[in-house]
Amino acid sequence: MVRRWKPVEGAFADPDAKSRWRVHGHRGPDSGALAVCAPAPQTSSIMMSLQIAINLGMLGDVADVKNAFCQSDPMRSAQGEIYVEPCDGVDVEPGSLIRHRVNVYGLDDAPMAWRRTVVSYPQEHGFVRSLLEPCWWIRYGSSGEVLNMILLEVEDFMIASSSQESRAWLRSTL
Fold it and tell me: How many other C-beta atoms can be found within 10 angstroms of the C-beta atom of residue 7?
């Protein structure tokens, strides 16, 4: 279990406690045979997407997906089921093991599994992936105008919408 204090916005705001369960994925039976690379946007791509959104007069939002890796599609292990020792605070008998079904931080393929899960949303909702930046998705209107843009950075989504209507549509589908 990794515990830390997460900074919050505001000059005199107290930090929030944050805990994240990690497993030693490098010790797993599939380690070394997994797809582990998941793209993240380059700084220049982040700046370019923000500049384009500003130039187009778009409305901006940032969304943070809580427990992102745990929301990935179910784990698939070629070597069979994975069992882990519970961390402190889990109400089980000492010496027990827990069947591990979801991706968490520390598993070798968790970032790639999250990426596969999260890109299914823009693909299913009419977004087109940028040819230059694999983390940047754009939805166009019938006359070619940009309606929405999403830049995916692991569990953070930078979102731009051309109008309140396109913003409401995006919020209702997320």
Answer: 11
CA distances from 28 to 67, 88, 131, 142 (A): 21, 21, 35, 48
Which of 126, 151, 94, 114 has the alpha carbon at shortest distance from 36? 114
Distance, in Å, from the CA atom of 41 to the CA atom of 54, rounded to the nearest integer, reads 18
* Stretch (H or E) spanning 62: strand 59-64
Span 16-40, pLDDT tens digits = 777 666 666 555 556 555 555 667 8
Distance CA 72, CA 14 (A): 31
Q: Which of 171, 160, 170, 167 is nearest to 58 (CA)?
A: 160
Instruction: Please tell me what DSSP assigns to residue 102.
Output: S
Residue type, 83: Y
What pLDDT digit, counting tens, does each position of 41-84 carry?
888 989 999 999 999 999 999 887 776 666 666 666 666 777 77
| pLDDT of 122 over the 80 cut | yes
Per-residue pLDDT at 87 = 73
